[in-house]
Amino acid sequence: MPLDRRQALVLEPVRRFLRRQAHPHLLNLLAKVRSGDFGAVFDGLTHREQIALFKVLAEHGPALGARFLVDLPHEGGIELIRQLDVEAAARLLEQCAENDAAYILAGLDSDESAPILDLMRPEEKATVERLLIYQEETAGRLMTPDVFAVHEDMAAGETIAALQAKRDVEIAFYLYVIDNRNHLVGVLSLRELLTHPPHQPVKEFMSTDLITVRTETDQEEVAKVAAKYDLLAIPVVDDQGRLVGVVTIDDVMDVLREEASEDILRLAGTSEEERIEPSISKSARARAPWLLVTFLGGFLASIVFNSFSASLGGKLIGLAAFIPIVLGMGGSAGTQSSIVVIRSLATGRLKEGEFISAFLRESGVAAALGFAFGALLTLGSYLALVWRGQASGADAFQQAFVIGLALGVSMAVAIVLGAMLPLVLHRAGIDPAVSSTPFVTTSMDILGILIFFTLVTLFIAG
User: Fold this and answer.
1) 11, 35, 207, 329 — which has fewest CB within 10 A?
2) Nearest to 252 by CA among 213, 199, 198, 204
3) Burial bucket for residue 170 (CB in 10 Å: 0-12, 13-18, 19+)
4) pLDDT computed for residue 211 by the predictor
């Protein structure tokens, strides 16, 4: 992505200060850079300059470095930490929010993360280790454990004073209310707190209609809950209902970006590893599996083609010209259906009990599109066969009808298959995104050829 004017004005001075080792000037400049602009500036540096920059930040401005580190894509932050020495990495991570530090450390191998943890301050180390107990991609791993909460018997005035005294609270859009056993019993907004008399206990005006997630809730489900109810933060409770943390809106946005990128890459038959790792060998390994599926499918389709060509002989020559459109339309229709269903599952619009209705809907779409494009190709192929003098009269109509029927059946099968695969995989607990374009397209190449030549054999060569 090209740099805008403000980012371009920052990039060259950063490079110049790095070359001259003018660290105070570099820190003063970066302190004025907005977090949203830093990523573009960082990408404009060479790999060596990026590492040098964060070594300077770790030694002379760890708080500033931590702010920029967590603004990078999480995977980019993991790769960067790997390039730093252990002490520099520890200084940066102990300045990060605990959940961000835990996420980055979880992406490292144990022999890489253990030395960094050992050099972090005891308080930050203990909190990060508690977060690492939870499974990856869950609310427990994602949450910020340092959450501001007040007792239900506290008065509004006391609560305001407590909030003013706690200057390091990460988010205070909502105030959470707990009982003697740390159970979450209510929530209130700052507006509600400020508009009630100072002597009134918060339990008298707090809301008890709580929206919470459990520590084991999948992070994608957390993001769906936040989007559904327009929340800026979601409290996290354990299996006993005790408040243990909060997932903030910035972490929700990270999850949404991460899940969207992951699904797009899977639909393309590759992985996140390729996006963050420029290695040719790793990129080749990331793409190879699905390309192998496509290769094997194409090879099998060629075998099917050859087996029919021997029996059809000369009749195949005129009909073969229409094979690409049958295969292409089938693959495109199947991919469309697959993506629509995957998107509906990802956004929560398609629920568990609605699979049959979704299947029936896609079957209706398959019938309508198959009939429409089959009829269109029947007419088009009839005119083409007559115009080229390859057939005439009843023979031309018969061949055109078979070609159109092959397209209609192929598209209908592709749409149903494209809808079924994500539903079946979702029911089996597998990410539906793996039923991606390469798999659907390859499957339909094989099925399309089988359908085409089966119909030709039945109606023309039979």
Assistant:
1) 35
2) 213
3) middle
4) 92
What span, in angstroms and rounded, lies between the C-alpha atoms of 161 and 159? 5
Phi then psi for residue 99, to 5 deg, are: -70, -35
Per-residue pLDDT tens digits for 372-382: 988 998 898 88
Residue 86's nearest CA partner among 67, 60, 66, 58 is 58
- CA distance linking residue 67 with residue 321, whole number of Å: 60
Return the amino acid letter for 163. Answer: L
Structure tokens at 359: 């299947």
Which residues does the chain have with pLDDT short of 70?
1-3, 74, 167-172, 256-299, 301-318, 346-353, 390, 431-438, 461-462
Task: Indicate the DSSP class of residue 457.
Answer: I
Using alpha carbons only, give the angle 387, 392, 393 rounded to the nearest 5 degrees.
130
Alpha helices in 217-279 (DSSP H): 219-229, 249-267, 272-276
Query: pLDDT digit string (tens) for 242-297?
Result: 999 998 887 887 776 666 666 655 555 555 555 545 555 665 666 566 556 656 66
State residue 215's pLDDT score. 93
Nearest to 172 by CA among 143, 202, 193: 193
| Residues in contact with 275: Cβ distance below 8 Å, sequence separation at least 6, in sequence order | 75, 261, 265
Question: Cα angle vertex 318, ends 317, 322, to 5°?
Answer: 105
In the prediction, which pLDDT does 217 show? 92
392 phi, psi to nearest 5 deg: -150, 160
* Model-wide pTM > 0.85: no
Asked if 125 and 152 touch (Cβ cutoff 8 Å), the reply is: no
* Predicted pLDDT at 282: 63
For 398-426, give the DSSP string: HHHHHHHHHHHHHHHHHHHHHHHHHHHHH
The amino acid occupying position 69 is L
Q: Which residues of 271-307 are buried (b: 16+ CB within 10 A; e: fewer)?
A: bbebbbeeeeeebeebbeebeebbeebeeebeebbee
- Go through the chain and tell me how many residues it has: 462
Query: Is residue 151 classed as helix, strand or coil in its secondary structure?
Result: strand
- Amino acid residing at 20: R
Report the C-alpha gap between 296 and 161 in whole angstroms: 69
Q: How many helices (H) and strands (E) does the chain have?
A: 22, 6
DSSP-based helix, strand, coil % in the chain, nearest 5: 70, 10, 20
